[in-house]
Design goal:
Layout lengths: L2 H14 L3 E3 L5 E2 L5 E2 L1 E3 L8 H18 L5 E5 L4 H11 L3 E4 L12 E2 L7 E9 L3 H12 L3 E10 L3 H10 L3 E6 H10 L7 H10 L10
Parallel strand pairs: 5-6, 5-8, 8-9, 9-10
Antiparallel strand pairs: 1-4, 2-3, 6-7
Helix pairs in contact: 1-2, 1-6, 2-3, 6-7
Length: 215
């Protein structure tokens, strides 16, 4: 499949299982206090076998296409671990994961799984918003001597803050699908009204501006 075909397929999959759920009339509230018209829980893909198969095969195809020199997959903790494991199995590649912080017991590892200095790594992430957490993972891998080729993620909001952070860190992200594609698919399939697309994009472009609410 082409990148566009994958993006459309995954967008519809995520909508169907309510992994990405739009509610512009009754915004969700993030931990930061920001009001959002969208709720994302890509962990639900793991309990939907058909969608899980689409996601993992698409991740494997994406890694092969975008990062052909990949030697190891590293999942983000915790949401990226299962996806890295399944994708690694499909590709015949070793995988591990990076903890949010160093353990305070045992070997005190932050990186779990064998990683040799100089190995070419792709980070597997479930979603990208502002990019902070995945950049911490990239920095931990670089500190361990890995060559991080980039990130393969399921979904990205495309928020400017995230784009800027990834650029500043010198790391590339390739997502299976994105906010704009899902918003369009949601309108086409009746999850939201077509007029809501502009409200959703206004949120994506400036999450701190709540003027989209009630429009």
């Amino acid at each position: 499949m082409t990148k566009q075909e994958i993006s459309a397929l995954i967008a519809r999959d995520l909508l169907r299982i309510r992994a990405v759920f739009f509610r512009p009339e009754q915004p969700f509230v993030w931990a930061s206090g920001i009001k959002s018209p969208v709720y994302c829980d890509n962990r639900l893909t793991l309990t939907a076998p058909e969608v899980r198969s689409d996601v993992e095969n698409a991740l494997a195809e994406t890694v092969r296409r975008e990062y052909p020199e990949t030697e190891v997959l590293m999942g983000t903790s915790t949401a990226g671990i299962a996806h890295a494991a399944i994708t690694g199995h499909l590709m015949g590649l070793p995988m591990g994961y990076v903890r949010a912080g160093q353990k305070d017991h045992g070997r005190q590892n932050q990186i779990e799984g064998r990683l040799e200095p100089g190995q070419k790594v792709v980070v597997i992430e479930d979603l990208i918003s502002t990019g902070g957490s995945v950049i911490e993972v990239v920095e931990a891998l670089r500190a361990a001597g890995a060559e991080v080729l980039g990130i393969a993620s399921i979904f990205t909001y495309g928020m400017q803050k995230g784009i800027d952070r990834l650029a500043a860190a010198g790391v590339r992200n390739v997502s299976l699908t994105d906010f704009d594609t899902i918003a369009q698919a949601a309108a086409e399939e009746g999850y939201i009204a077509p007029a809501d697309i502009a409200r959703l994009i206004a949120f994506r472009d400036n999450p701190a501006d709540e003027s989209w609410i009630g429009k």
